[in-house]
Model the fold of this input.
Amino acid sequence: MRQLRGQERVITANRQTSWAFADAFVPEDEALHRARERALELGLRSVSPGTGAALRLLAATADAKAVAEIGTGTGVSGIYLLHGMRPDGVLTTVDPEPERQQFAREAFREAGFASNRSRFIPGRALDVLPRLADGGYDLVFCDGDRLESMDCLAESLRLLRPGGLVCFEGVFADGRTIDSAAQPAEVLRLRELLRAVRESQELMSALLPVGDGLLCAVRRG
Done:
């Protein structure tokens, strides 16, 4: 690895500081803090505040009424999505662990959302998604098994209405996605996902440098 010169070190440091500032730009309330604490107790990684804020903004921009989430966790991302959705919107969230979904249910209630604003479906994403309605969703957020990324992309495109959004969290994989060293299968699958989304004629995409990387794409009409 080449040695960074003075000016390059300043630029790198400034970028890291700017990213940290952007990630902390939007304050979080007690409901989100407690949901994060539960995630830490379970050894789960939640979306960063910057990623959550981006998801909230995207849901609001899309005027989303129906959102599907792959990977409930303890409800951090779900709270952000619900805040961005229409007041009558419903979040359908899928996770293989019912215990996590119970924590998320409590987090949503603590954040002030009525029980009819969310639908919890326990199970593997690739078992559940085929049962959801074609073209019935304004936004699909994927934060599940990275090895299933390409299959989740295919299912997401089926679920989305024209003009709908699909978002994948964690596509930087802690920097491993662009690391030239040998990488595990999940990172190779993320690279495949990035190529597929970038080259798709059906999608208009952007890669947002928030959190661990948020890949977003709009399904063209």
Notes: The radius of gyration is 17 Å. The CA atoms of residues 13 and 177 lie 21 Å apart. The first strand starts at residue 66 and ends at 70.
